[in-house]
Amino acid sequence: MDGTNGTNGADGSNGANGLDSIIVQTVVPPGTPCPYGGLEIQSGLDLDGDGILEPNEVQQTEYVCNGATGEAGATGAQGPQGDQGAQGDQGAQGDQGPQGVQGPQGETGATGAQGDSGLDSLILVTALPVGSSACPAGGQEVETGIDLNGDAILEANEVQSTANICNGAPPMATIVANAAGGAHWSDGTFARSCYFYLNPEPGTGYTYSGQTGSGVYTVQPDGPGGLPAFNVYCDMLNEGGGWTLAVGISGANSNQLNINAVTPANLTSPTGFGKLADAEINNLKSGISPGYRFTCAAITAYFPTGCEFSSIIEAGGDCTAESYVYPPTSYGTTRYSQPGDLSGLADGDSGNNNRLIYGQPGFDGCDTAATGWGQNGAVWVR
Predict the structure, then answer these.
(1) Confidence check: pLDDT of 310 > 90
(2) pLDDT of the residue at 298
(3) pTM attached to this predicted model
(4) In terms of CB atoms within 10 Å, which of 45, 167, 217, 342 comes out highest?
């Protein structure tokens, strides 16, 4: 009689876990493909499970190159290796049967389930604008990490390393004199107004140094490609500085009541009589208040930048909102009542004692309550 069959063999072990993904960042010396050096970022699956990304395992290579003279950002730390998948449970051993004739071999156990796939690696490159704290001259931010939720988007909680590649700083430009007698930037360009010579935009390389102080400067209110640059007188010292002389009012005529420029070359002197075109006067404003400083005889008032200056249209709104103190804490709001059109800038407080008027058809010069018409004056803009 044959002996009883032996018990079935033990179940086979679970299949191997999915492959881990690996990211390797390597500093690239100056040359090809990065003339000024940078980072080589390689990613792929760890096919042989040795924790090293070998050449045959590389699936993606990206280069992030340094700017010409910018300082290279610190290389991000290598991301941690993914956790090892858990080993499948060992099948239970059957009870020992009595020794008998060897029975036929039991069937092979079923193959264990395949482990989960490894996670993808992601790279995100974001441009950094000029003036950013990380890169004052602009550059790129490079973020790397693992796509934990599988949506192919590198989200904040998935970032494992960050590196900044900064552009080189622009050359510094200071203020120098030009052949036409006005000061300008040493790289041959011009600021829009006296205010922007005194307060250049951060991160552009321009600095208020060199031939500074009050005097003649060359400005281009329309910016590069606009109307030609011209010379003006800049007050860089009083009431915060940055004031451009826009109108010199003569008590002997009413030339200031003209939408166009009148003898603008005279405005290179702080006491010159002339006028810039209304459009240029408005283009000279920087956007800060007060935007106008108006002096007639011995009286000075300040008007907000919201005034859209016009020498031929009746003054209203912010062009009649004045303050007689600097810096202003408030502005007048009620226009002084007087027959006829009051052009340009006019006192916004009621009562003759505060009267201050830029101009009025039929009258020469400017007007104050203490002096009447026929006075010299000046309008400064910033």
Answers:
(1) yes
(2) 93
(3) 0.58
(4) 217
